[in-house]
Design a protein that fits this description.
18 helices; elongated
């Protein structure tokens, strides 16, 4: 603080020194010219802006609009460009300036995203403050070259018996989940995420065009099951701009690729690509791109294939990481031959088809085993599963054919009736409650008991209790046996017999008390007992007739 008067020599020296310093800085200042290309908005429509100028702009370059809004240059016309907006555009009007950023759309990546819920622009949606990362990746990246890819040899356990046994998934595979609305598609994906806890697999859940209530419910389930700690949630709600719904799966894929390139195993769920395709169709029609089949543009196949092709298993030289993709598609009236489902079926390595009729019957998960297939996972399936799954799938297929045949009211012989009863037990064992994954030893114990026909004497209404009993028994097996079952090696005959006998012992307690033993003891006298009774009935009828005649 200066206390001297204006006429004081101390104040004069201070001011002189300040002016000298300012003069020196002005002399050292060299103005720098920066080239800035600016365009002008000519028209605004639903999620689309037409801009005049910006002749040097690149395809899919990020443009800055007033109010902190961004857009992506899509159509490069002769005298204008069409831009897809990434957010609320109510404040935009013709005549405003648009600036180039010189970069493409990118997203923040890193471990700081684990446990967070963000929008496609990387902004947090969970109220926990900004996401601080030190690296960004473009959302559009070339897929891994073929020479850097390794075969899919390691299974990705879903915790669902029907999938792990009959439709296995390998790490690095792309498995499509398709079915009608409200048939349990999201539940299967969430069950798979829950089962990755403690398995060193990171997860990315991408919600595209979903209702806010549905997303909140899914996040609440992830938090309740302690799965949010290893999961990144990317959300583009249905009421947001179509441009955000379009870039959402690419953003999620870049986040997952970052973890994969670090040598980690990642699972990504796209829920669902039907809304993504509709958002792209909306943008394309607004951009006056020519419509094709079902009003979708011709490059709709390319936008999905270039994204799903990024899911792979890297070689050891590249770190050995993997990215497993579970895209979800909604069908209409089980029409899997529609345009978008057939596109994705041809892109992916198999499909899981959900049946509304099974869902209505209470068979959950409502997976149609006959139409579902995994074209890669069989090579990655554990040897113990392969030893029991082949016979199981054949028996289940025979049961479905016999069940449809029996609906016509035909008379069935004993062998056919036994096959149907056994198939009903298979269906009951493959059923599973939501959000209740089953461990590998418990699954193998149930499958071995099924192949040994141990459940055939258990009433159908007690099958749930029988499964729980076998699961508890499997978890109480000796530690060395559980380790051999979990290791993934070939199942030894001694281990098979040990598990089967243990299952037989616990299931005997659930059999009805009125066992068929008395009938079995008198089984040899059944024919001889029935014949005299038939003779007596005939004799009695004749005697009554004779008495009536007399």
């Amino acid at each position: 603080m200066i206390t001297a008067t204006p006429d004081s020599p101390d104040l004069k020296s201070v001011l002189d020194g300040a002016f000298v310093d300012i003069q020196q800085r002005l002399q050292a200042f060299r103005p720098q010219l920066q080239l800035r290309e600016v365009g002008t908005i000519t028209s605004v429509s639903t999620g689309i802006v037409r801009v005049h100028g910006l002749r040097q702009v690149s395809s899919e370059e990020l443009l800055a609009f007033p109010g902190g809004l961004f857009g992506i240059a899509f159509n490069l016309n002769e005298d204008s460009i069409d831009v897809v907006l990434l957010g609320d555009y109510a404040h935009l009007h013709a005549g405003q300036e648009v600036q180039r950023t010189g970069r493409v759309m990118d997203v923040a990546v890193g471990d700081a995203l684990l446990g967070r819920m963000i929008d496609p622009l990387g902004r947090p949606l969970d109220g926990r403050g900004p996401v601080v990362t030190h690296q960004r990746l473009p959302i559009e990246r070339p897929a891994t070259p073929i020479m850097d890819r390794a075969p899919v040899t390691e299974p990705l356990q879903t915790g669902l018996k029907v999938m792990d046994a009959l439709i296995p998934i390998g790490r690095g595979q792309r498995e499509l989940i398709l079915g009608d609305r409200q048939t349990g598609k999201t539940a299967i994906a969430l069950d798979t995420i829950f089962n990755q806890r403690g398995r060193n697999v990171l997860c990315v859940y991408c919600a595209i065009g979903q209702r806010a209530s549905a997303v909140a419910k899914a996040v609440a389930n992830l938090h309740e099951k302690d799965a949010l700690a290893y999961t990144v949630v990317v959300v583009a709600e249905g009421n947001e701009a179509p441009g955000l719904a379009y870039i959402a799966p690419y953003v999620a894929t870049s986040i997952a690729e970052h973890f994969m390139e670090q040598g980690r195993d990642v699972l990504i769920v796209y829920d669902d690509l039907t809304h993504h395709a509709r958002a792209y169709r909306e943008l394309s029609l607004l951009l006056r791109r020519p419509p094709g089949r079902e009003a979708f543009p011709g490059d709709i196949f390319y936008i999905h294939s270039r994204m799903l092709e990024r899911a792979t298993h890297l070689t050891k030289e590249r770190g050995g990481g993997s990215l497993t993709a579970l895209p979800i598609i909604e069908t209409e009236a089980q029409n899997i031959s529609a345009y978008i489902p057939t596109n994705l079926i041809s892109i992916t390595d198999g499909q899981i088809v959900l049946s509304p009729s099974l869902f209505e019957l209470g068979v959950l998960p409502a997976i149609d085993v006959g139409q579902s297939v995994s074209r890669v996972g069989g090579k990655a399936q554990r040897a113990a599963y392969r030893a029991v799954a082949g016979d199981l799938k054949l028996a289940y297929a025979q049961f479905e054919e016999l069940e449809s045949f029996a609906r016509f009211g035909a008379r069935l012989d004993e062998d056919t009736r036994q096959s149907i009863d056994h198939g009903k037990r298979i269906r009951a064992c493959l059923g599973q409650a939501e959000f209740s994954p089953v461990s590998v030893p418990a699954q193998l114990a149930i499958l071995l008991a099924l192949n040994a026909a141990l459940f055939d004497l258990v009433p159908l209404e007690r099958m749930a209790a029988a499964q729980q009993t076998v699961e508890k028994m499997a978890n109480d097996l000796p530690d060395d046996l559980i380790e051999r079952l979990t290791a993934g090696g070939k199942l030894a005959d001694t281990d098979r017999r040990q598990v089967t006998e243990a299952a037989r012992e616990v299931l005997e307690a659930l059999l009805p008390q009125t066992e068929t033993r008395p009938s079995q003891e008198t089984a040899g006298h059944t024919d001889t007992d029935e014949k005299p009774m038939a003779i007596q009935l005939k004799t009695g009828s004749h005697s009554n007739t004779n008495e009536a005649q007399l």
